[in-house]
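Researcher: We're teaching a course module on how sequence relates to structure. For the next exercise, students receive a sequence and then see the predicted structure as tokens, so they can try to spot secondary structure elements on their own. Here is the exercise chain.
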Amino acid sequence: MKRAGHTTLLLASDEAKNFIGHEGEDLHRFMGSATQAFSEHDMNCPASSGSVKTAGMIVVPRSMKTLSAIVHGLSDNAITRAADVTLKERRTLIPVPRETPLSIVHLRNLLRAAQAGATILPAMPAFYTKPRTMDDMVNFIVGRILDLFNVPHSLYPRWGEPGAEKE
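Model: And here is the predicted structure for the students to work with:
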């Protein structure tokens, strides 16, 4: 399925497949929302090759294990290989950490990712949008990610628009 003219590739880790049900999502519906879905073990995923043009990659939610593999060049699965390709091709890489609190090891790895060219976008919703539901908070993060790819959306009110209050 194409979304607003965009082709999306979904790389799902085994851990994501195990935990998605715990977070109230249906794995098949989620994977069906992408143009193509791949296992982390499928190194034939198009995103694993630098000759395949992509706008970039979003790793969400991104575990600290995966972040460590990315910043140390450990391309041992399709996710970390695709992230490695994204960085080497100077494309947009957006890791979205959600762990808290962060240790010094986490902070150093986040810094290494930023130094390698990644844009770190923590899952921290803004409250000036006056979110009322969990979906409102998630939509803010998704909207910020889409902004970094210049994908138009109306997922949250922008600063100064009706519904957005000053912080």
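Model: If you want an answer key for the exercise: The beta strands are 9-12, 36-39, 56-62, 92-97. The longest strand covers residues 56-62.
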